[in-house]
What does this fold into?
Amino acid sequence: MPKLTCPCGYVHNLTPIPDDGWLTVRDRDYEALIDAELGALAGDDVRSSRRIDLWRRLYECPNCARLMWSLPGDHCEKFRTYNLESNDNS
It folds into this structure.
């Protein structure tokens, strides 16, 4: 079972398809993603294989609200983690 562990200890279960994460794509890559999707529908394996390199995954921890994001080129193996800044301005 694939899992992704947040620094707070929460474990995202990545087994269900679809899971609770988001797929992200850079704006400048969106048209290439659409082309790859159309290639998949047409049975064009070369065009459809590009989809994997165009999108990344994003997860939000339900416990601490950290964001965990896989970067392009990481093939969803490495995640950068972002924590919320404090909004306390007093």
